[in-house]
Structure formats: structure tokens, C-alpha cells
Automatic annotation (TrEMBL):
<dbReference type="InterPro" id="IPR007492">
    <property type="entry name" value="LytTR_DNA-bd_dom"/>
</dbReference>
<dbReference type="Pfam" id="PF04397">
    <property type="entry name" value="LytTR"/>
</dbReference>
<dbReference type="GO" id="GO:0000156">
    <property type="term" value="F:phosphorelay response regulator activity"/>
</dbReference>
<dbReference type="InterPro" id="IPR046947">
    <property type="entry name" value="LytR-like"/>
</dbReference>
<protein>
    <submittedName>
        <fullName>LytR family transcriptional regulator</fullName>
    </submittedName>
</protein>
<dbReference type="GO" id="GO:0003677">
    <property type="term" value="F:DNA binding"/>
</dbReference>
<feature type="domain" description="HTH LytTR-type">
    <location>
        <begin position="14"/>
        <end position="109"/>
    </location>
</feature>
Amino acid sequence: MNFMMIKTKQHAMKVRIADVYYIKSHPEKPHYIEIVTKKKTYAILEKLQNIESLYSEYFVRCHRNCLVNISKVTEINLQDKTILIGNEGERQVRFSRRRYQHLVEQWLNKGDF
């Protein structure tokens, strides 16, 4: 499965999983998540837990409100507790202490490096 099906109020589209940087809970809309790619951010009505179970081989939970595409992680900053994502660290997301060990294991085992 190389694509995710995204359904918004107006559209249904396929997005390549390789283009997704991370998925997080929407900061303003309850029950919505944001799927962040290099070019666009999609807001959809879905549970983060459902995405995690459907695409567990591609995404790892780094915080209670965020999943990262493990193949897009370029660096983990232990001091700031942030994950740099993209070719030149274009995006940053925070990780929790509790999720750190699992995150590193997945990054070492499944990352593209």
C-alpha cells in the first residue's frame, strides 16, 4: 500500500505515503487530524489511533498527539526533544520521553538510511 485515501468535506484523494511528513491532532478542531506533506496540509475527520493501526509499518507515534513517517526522520535532537523531518530538517515535531526508545528502535530498523 503506497497511498493513503484522504476524504475531506469536498474531496476524496490519494496521497502517497512517501510524501507525508507527519500526522497530528488538529490544534483547533476536535476529532480532526492534520496530514502534513511538503506541499500541503490536509484536515480530515479521523482518529489518530485508526491511522496508526492502518499504517503502522510507515508511521510511529512520537507523542500522544503525533505520528511521524519514520522514513522522513533525518535527526533526533535529544536536548530539545524534537525530531527533524525532511531533507534539510524542514519540519520539526516534539517527541515524549515515554516514546523515545520505541521511536529510535523503529528509526534504526526501518529508516531509509
